[in-house]
Amino acid sequence: MEIDAPAGTFSPRQVILLQWITLAWMLIECFVALIAAWDARSASLLAFGSDSLVELISALVVLLQFASPPRMSQAKAARFCGLLLYVLAAVVTAIAIFGLIRRQEVELSPLGIAITAGALVLMPVLAYFKRREAERTGSKALRADAVQSAACAYLAALTLAGLLLRSWFGFDWLDSVAALAAVPILVLEAKRARRGQVCSCC
Questions:
Q1: Cβ atoms within 10 Å of 40's Cβ, excluding its own
Q2: How many other CB atoms are there within 10 angstroms of residue 192's CB atom?
Q3: 13-194 — its CATH code?
Q4: Helix, strand, or coil here: 64?
Q5: Which of the 8 DSSP states describes residue 71?
C-alpha cells in the first residue's frame, strides 16, 4: 500500500543524511572493488563494483528528489532507480558469462574479501533505515533505493562466499557462478522497485 505524505509534513534531513552516507560509502566501495577485481581477475568482484556504481547513481537520484526545491519527480525517480537494477542484472550476467567462457584463474583477494564483508554489515542497515523513511515520506524512489541497498548486501554475501570458497577449494568457476546467482533476485527486485514496492530481503 502506498503512503502519500502531504508536502511539508516531514523534514527531509534524515533522508538526505542517509543518501550522503550511501554516496560516501559507494565511492569507497566502487573504487576498492574495481581495484580488487582487476588485481584478482574476478568476475564477481567486477560485478560487485558495477553494482556499487549503480547504487551511487541511485543514491544521487534520490538526493535530487529530496533537494529543495525537488529536481526530479517521485514517479520519474522510481522508474529510473528500477531501470538501474535491470541494467545491473544485464551487466552482472555479461561479466559472469565472460568469466565462465574465458576460464581464467582467479587469485585470492584479501582486499575484495574486506570490502564485501564491510558492505555485508553496512548495507542491510542502510536498507532498513531507507525503507523506514520511504514509508514515512511515501517516496517510491527511496523505496527503490532501499531495494538496491538490500541487493547490494545480497551481492556482497554472494561475492564473499564465492571468494572464500574459491580460496578454500580452488574452483575458479565458483567466482562466475556466484555472480550469476545474483541475477534472478536482481530482476525480481527491479520489477518491484519500478512499482515502488519494498523488496522482501530488506
A1: 23
A2: 17
A3: 1.20.1510.10
A4: helix
A5: S
The H-or-E segment that residue 86 falls in is helix 74-102
Contact (Cβ atoms closer than 8 angstroms) between residue 71 and residue 65: yes
Confirm if 132 and 18 have CB atoms less than 8 A apart: no
- Taking only the tens place, the pLDDT of each residue in 52-108 is 887 887 788 778 777 766 665 656 666 776 787 788 788 878 878 887 887 666 677
Helix (H) or strand (E) holding 125: helix 110-137
Q: In the structure grid, which three cell numbers stand for residue 39, read together? A: 588485481
Query: How would DSSP label each residue in 137-198?
Result: HT-HHHHHHHHHHHHHHHHHHHHHHHHHHHHHH--THHHHHHHHTTHHHHHHHHHHHHTTPP
d(CA 145, CA 59): 7
The domain ranges of the chain are 13-194
C-alpha radius of gyration, the chain, whole number: 17
What pTM value is reported for the model? Answer: 0.74
Q: Which residue has the cell 567466482?
A: 175
